[in-house]
Design brief:
By secondary structure, this protein is mainly beta. 9% of the residues lie in helices and 41% in strands.
């Protein structure tokens, strides 16, 4: 039986508040039909609180006109955290940030790799791969 005194419940509340500060959308991408020149719309499975974090350093550093080095992820692994109430994403799904503290991250897309399972879950962890094709090559 789970009560408000349950440490996992308290940890979930804190983790959701402190970690899941962005808004993520999990969806099945629409498909273009070359015979009819029509596209089916995306099917949104869930949109709500979450976070997408890189799992390692960026692949490339680009130097812009001001001489500053800016890391740009060309590919790589990312972690998505969502509340346990969010549906489990599968490899047919795509993830995007619809709102983020980092304006450059908003609208970026990732493909779902896999979902972690835990005997003491606090947040759902989903592994993602950055989708360079859907992000204009960068």
């Amino acid at each position: 039986m789970t009560t408000s005194a349950d440490p996992l419940v308290r940890a979930r509340v804190v983790a959701e508040k402190l970690v899941c500060t962005d808004t993520v959308r999990i969806f099945i991408p629409g498909v273009f039909n070359p015979d009819t020149w029509e596209s089916t719309p995306d099917v949104v499975l869930w949109e709500g609180a979450g976070a997408v974090l890189p799992d390692r350093a960026a692949d490339v550093t680009v130097t812009v006109q001001d001489g500053q080095g800016t890391p740009v992820a060309k590919a790589g692994r990312y972690r998505m955290f969502t509340p346990l109430s969010a549906p489990v994403a599968t490899p047919e799904h795509t993830v995007t940030l619809t709102a983020s503290a980092d304006p450059d991250a908003t609208g970026r897309k990732w493909k779902v790799e896999s979902v972690e399972r835990s005997s003491a879950p606090v947040l759902r962890l989903t592994w993602l791969t950055y989708d360079t094709t859907a992000n204009g090559g960068s």
